[in-house]
Amino acid sequence: MTIPRILVVDDDQDVRQMVTQFLRQNGAMALPAGTEADVRKHLDGGRVDLILLDVMLGDENGLEICARLRSEQDVPIIMVSALSADHQRMEGYEVGADDYIAKPFNPDLLLARVKAVLSRARRSSSLVHRRNTKTFEFHGWVYNAKRGEVLSPAGIQVTLSRRELALLQTLVANPHIPLTREEIAAALDVTGDTGQTADATGRAIDVLVGRLRSKIEKNPKDPQILRTERGVGYVFSADVTVQDQ
Amino acid sequence: MTIPRILVVDDDQDVRQMVTQFLRQNGAMALPAGTEADVRKHLDGGRVDLILLDVMLGDENGLEICARLRSEQDVPIIMVSALSADHQRMEGYEVGADDYIAKPFNPDLLLARVKAVLSRARRSSSLVHRRNTKTFEFHGWVYNAKRGEVLSPAGIQVTLSRRELALLQTLVANPHIPLTREEIAAALDVTGDTGQTADATGRAIDVLVGRLRSKIEKNPKDPQILRTERGVGYVFSADVTVQDQ
DNA sequence: AGGGCTATGTAACAACCGGTAACGGCGCTG
DNA sequence: CAGCGCCGTTACCGGTTGTTACATAGCCCT
Hints:
Chains A, B: One of its GO terms (biological process) is regulation of DNA-templated transcription. Chain A is of the alpha/beta class and 245 residues long. The first copy, chain A, has 2 domains: 5-129, Response regulator (Rossmann fold), CATH 3.40.50; 134-244, Winged helix-like DNA-binding domain superfamily/Winged helix DNA-binding domain (Arc Repressor Mutant, subunit A), CATH 1.10.10.10. The first copy, chain A, is built from 9 helices and 13 strands. In chain A, helix 6 (162-172) crosses helix 9. The longest helix of chain A is centred in the middle third of the chain and has 19 residues, at 107-125. The interface between A and B is medium-sized, with 16 and 12 residues.
């Protein structure tokens, strides 16, 4: 990658100078900016890879600027603040900052953050490394594959055990397709080391299904989502909508 | 740039111990194995980058084992033997060994061979690079390998003990790759080799993991960084960005 | 409809696994 | 020598998961 251009936005001239200099020593093209006008000038004029934005700009509110910039351009932003309280941090994220760092900061820390954000940005633009998290939705339930989180229609988080989660994952990936116990066992890697038949694996799957039902079916006795296909196995009989993220 | 895993196969406990220790000092994850069964356990379980195989195993014939392994898996093998006769060397090559070294061997020589075979296999040459100072960043944390410093997302320095630091280092070098307790122990050089199972090493790793968690996890009860892989071991499940320095 | 067979649901149990508090040994430092 | 921090061991607890046994439901045949 070419030398990254970093906009250093801070109303304190001394801070600007210091940060700018430090970044330059570390190979970046640092562009100091004292006001939002300065920022816009640079954004209009040319390429900017990252904005280091101080939360407290004399007259202007950095958070607002951040939100505004975010809504207009897709430039990574790291918020900088003298306030390290957690809620500040959260606010920073809410307005769309990519990261947050407290002042006074450790140079190593700053550099690490900058590089992290830059490489993240680069990665997202190259199709190769895209790591997509999927979210599945069915009958009001939401299953976030990455975090392994399951939310009930009421929005309450349900904790599934590892096995239950794996089962759900398998099912969700094959909606409306009847799966035999053997297939499920294979997907869950249950077999054990003695190449057991599905029967020897035995009722493990049945029991597991029961346990999952007890957690995600409104009335486990009359399952609507995880249905039994008698003589065959089980079907996930809900429509699933998938969202990449 | 993962740390290479080297299986040290020798029926003589003292030799195993010595070689293992030497390799560990030079940055490898050395896994001692006394029998073919041990070898298979490791091969089944996980990735092994290289096997150092003694020709004379008490009951078994190392050459046969070598041939057998070769026919099954594509793992580089270096044969080790007390007999330096040429025909032995030839035999070693015939059964598929990548290199051959006579006992007693010069440590430097061993290391050279190991590196050669590893790089031929286009594996990491981290045996060499490992001395580089690196800074790792994950979830806002910064770990400076040279100074052994760890900074929290808030920029506060956290003091880890020697062991905790070593554990972190091992994990950070293998993000998203589940490590067994045994592998971790090997990397930390915990047991030496007394033919102990991972169980004999006992809960040391578990406890250590717990201690590290209590320092770097926001909520140690629900670890986001250092996750448990039930029945397997532990995974460092954060994206890590690395900077050479 | 009813008998008999098989498939499935599930409660109870036991084995196993991982988290962790507590303890004690060890080495270092003052 | 006392105090302290580090670290492996142990024991206990709680959660997970496969097994078993028994109850029930579904299906086929007469």
